[in-house]
Amino acid sequence: MRRKKAQSVRAIGRWCEEVGIGEFGWWRRAPLVVEEITPQPTVTEETYTQTLARCESLRDWALIELLWSTGLRWAEIARLAIEHIGFASGYIMVAITKSKKPRIVLISPVALRALRRFVGRRTAGPVLEMSGNAIRLRLIRLGAPSAHAWRRGWAVHALKSGV
């Protein structure tokens, strides 16, 4: 934020001198904060397989498969109910999204298998029975990247596979 303000101050000062409005030499002294730009973490297929190898339970497996194959946000996974999963159709209905509008999400057969095994005979209620914070902590314990890194990884994976 500071960098942009300093850049705009310098641009206005430069323009004023070019147009001849006045002498504004002070704009040269506006400090520019140089910030190192680091790439955002994105899950790769290698990270996915390594995380699957560290899964300790069916719930972990189902969580990782949901993150990898659907690109759901952690809050959407926390609110996901069994009634919202179409096991026969291969779709999930996300009732409440970030924009408060429902949407339909395609789910992979592997993720469906993981969910079926975890859900068992239950027919209603929350799927993973985890809060958003519990999902975040579980990912940390598994040594996995954040849920948003999984979302970025899903987007890259979906683009490569043509989904």
| CATH fold description of the largest domain | hpI Integrase, Chain A
What Rg do the Cα atoms give? Answer: 23 Å
Strand order, sheet with most strands: 1-2-3
The gross shape turns out to be elongated
Order of helices and strands: HHHHEEEHHH
Distance between the termini: 37 Å
Averaged pLDDT, please?
85
Structure classification: mainly alpha
Regions with little confidence, pLDDT below 50 for 5+ residues: none
In CATH, the homologous superfamily of the largest domain goes by the name Intergrase catalytic core
Number of domains: 2
Please report the total strand number as a whole number. 3
**Count of helical stretches:** 7
CATH architecture term of the largest domain: Orthogonal Bundle
Largest sheet: 3 strands, antiparallel
CATH C-level class of the largest domain is Mainly Alpha
Give the % helix. 40-55%
Q: Give the DSSP E fraction (strand runs of 2 or more residues).
A: 5-15%
